[in-house]
């Protein structure tokens, strides 16, 4: 099916997706594959946080205490990645830069070492594969690591992709699958008799739809017309990132992603086949500010330099800041809301690239059946409604 539009009547789709970041695009692509006439509304489809993100697929090294429920979804998505990337590449001809290179999380001092030991114990309790290495073993794997590295965790299952390639491939996949890309801002949701019926865009177009998916990243809580009680509690979490370029004659600089906590801040270095080396990322509660600051760049370079001193020789080719769509429990909000016809696909915070494959499948299932699949039930947006919050606090 494709959206119907006869002159004088507004175009009607089965599904309108507000937001064409990686999450909105994967939702639209998977919905179209299931035969739903789908429109994406975004002034710049394929933009958003993926233009900044490092692209770590780090279900294991990103595990935090208290986030075991999210771990299940992260692992489910990580398992889908090889087939997902192959399918997208076959359809679009784009290489996503999917590297199964693994990750090395290292410690620079006794405190970091204790912290990593705890993470290792948590991995073991959770049945996850990670291997403790001495400092010398770490340097054998990554010869450019600083001599001061005191030990580390080797996690071969945490991979990486290039999120810019992913976003571009998803735009092409949508186009090839018949998704209509309407390049405009959605101004407001239309609601008729307690049911979402579409959106009105900034260019004045009324886009009618059987179902609306709100996938507007960190702006998801700001769409006019969405009733207060179903508005997602999503906030922007700023991240600054640097891109350096490893000259052809220096490759391979690093063989895998290297990360650490330095003076309480997370820092990671993600190498790509192309020679790009991404260093990230700050985590700042600054509203919608995306300024790259001298302090942010200084701290990232200082911390990365402590891990891999040789980075200072490399050209610094890009500095950029983006906004993670943060949610109160750091987990995404997926599926139907309390307003009929309105679904959410947002709040993916620091794992949106990793969670792209599973989000597409979960939303396609919800759009065609009205239900969340078992693996996604804990991520219902209804967990944040007033009643559910009262129950949790009782
Ligand atoms: C510094 C940084 C590093 C990261 N590193 C990683 C990583 O290594 N691994 C990982 O898994 N994740 C990472 N992430 C997180 C990941 O990038 C995000 O979770 C993911 O990109 C969110 O995608 P999204 O489509 O939900 O939102 P966004 O990318 O924000 O896209 C939202 C889209 O909605 C559009 N939009 C908003 N409002 C409207 C409206 N009213 N009408 C029309 N369109 C609208 C915007 O134009 C935008 O294109 C990182 C993020 C940052 C910032």
From TrEMBL:
Alphabetical list of Pfam families matching this protein: DAO (PF01266)
Reactions catalysed according to its record: glycine + O2 + H2O = glyoxylate + H2O2 + NH4(+)
EC number: 1.4.3.19
Membrane spanning stretches: none
Ranges of residues in domain FAD dependent oxidoreductase: 14-365
Pathway the protein contributes to: Cofactor biosynthesis; thiamine diphosphate biosynthesis
Record-level GO BP terms: thiamine biosynthetic process; thiamine diphosphate biosynthetic process
Keyword Oxidoreductase: yes
Protein name in UniProt: glycine oxidase
Source species of the chain: Streptomyces sp. SID14436
Classification lineage: Bacteria, Bacillati, Actinomycetota, Actinomycetes, Kitasatosporales
Gene symbol of the encoding locus: thiO
């Amino acid at each position: 099916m494709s959206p119907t539009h006869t002159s004088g009547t507004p175009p009607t789709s089965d599904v309108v997706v507000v937001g064409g970041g990686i999450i909105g695009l994967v939702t639209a692509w998977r919905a179209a594959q299931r035969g739903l006439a789908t429109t994406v509304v975004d002034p710049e489809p394929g933009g958003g946080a993926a233009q900044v993100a490092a692209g770590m697929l780090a279900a294991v090294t990103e595990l935090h205490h208290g986030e075991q429920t999210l771990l299940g979804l992260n692992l489910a998505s990580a398992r889908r990645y090889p087939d997902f990337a192959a399918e997208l590449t076959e359809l679009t001809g784009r290489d996503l830069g999917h590297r199964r290179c693994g990750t090395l999380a290292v410690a620079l001092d006794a405190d970091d070492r204790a912290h990593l030991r705890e993470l290792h114990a948590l991995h073991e309790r959770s049945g996850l594969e990670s291997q403790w290495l001495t400092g010398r073993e770490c340097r054998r794997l990554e010869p450019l690591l600083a001599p001061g590295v005191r030990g580390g965790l080797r996690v071969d299952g945490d991979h990486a992709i290039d999120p810019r390639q992913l976003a571009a491939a998803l735009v092409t996949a949508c186009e090839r699958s018949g998704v209509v890309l309407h390049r405009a801002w959605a101004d407001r949701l239309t609601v008729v008799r307690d049911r979402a019926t579409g959106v009105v865009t900034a260019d004045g177009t009324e886009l009618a739809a059987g179902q609306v998916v709100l996938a507007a990243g960190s702006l998801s809580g700001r769409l006019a017309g969405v009733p207060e009680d179903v508005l997602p509690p999503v906030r922007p979490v700023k991240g600054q990132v640097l891109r350096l370029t490893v000259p052809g004659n220096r490759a391979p600089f690093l063989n895998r992603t290297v990360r650490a906590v330095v003076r309480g801040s997370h820092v990671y270095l993600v190498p790509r086949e192309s020679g790009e080396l991404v260093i990230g990322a700050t985590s700042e509660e600054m509203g919608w500010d995306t300024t790259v600051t001298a302090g942010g760049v200084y701290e990232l370079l200082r911390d990365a330099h402590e891990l891999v001193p040789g980075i200072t020789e490399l050209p610094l080719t890009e500095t950029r800041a983006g906004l993670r769509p943060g949610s109160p429990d750091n987990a995404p909000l997926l599926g139907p809301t309390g307003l009929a016809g309105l679904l959410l696909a947002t709040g993916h915070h620091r794992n949106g690239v990793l969670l792209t494959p599973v989000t597409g499948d979960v939303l396609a299932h919800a759009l065609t059946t009205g239900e969340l699949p078992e693996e996604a039930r804990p991520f219902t947006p209804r967990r944040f409604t007033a009643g559910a919050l009262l129950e949790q606090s009782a």
